[in-house]
What does this fold into?
Amino acid sequence: MIADHMPTAIGGLPEDAPARPATQAAYPAVHNMPPARSTTPLDDAQQKQLENDLVAARNRYGGNPDAATATGTTPDPKAGGARNP
It folds into this structure.
């Protein structure tokens, strides 16, 4: 490499830099494909069930603090009505 022979003052390697390895490192196998997944993606019914379960869990544990309340008003965060997660 050219930088190996340039003085440090003009951009070369410093004197205490480690020596380059004698052999080049092998390149990673970039064309190898990962093995096929052992699980299949969710079908539409499973996806819908998962979404329903997540919505139910959200509603069970406090819901959306910005949503309208039963009276139809939204809580005022300045008044301390909004929860801090």
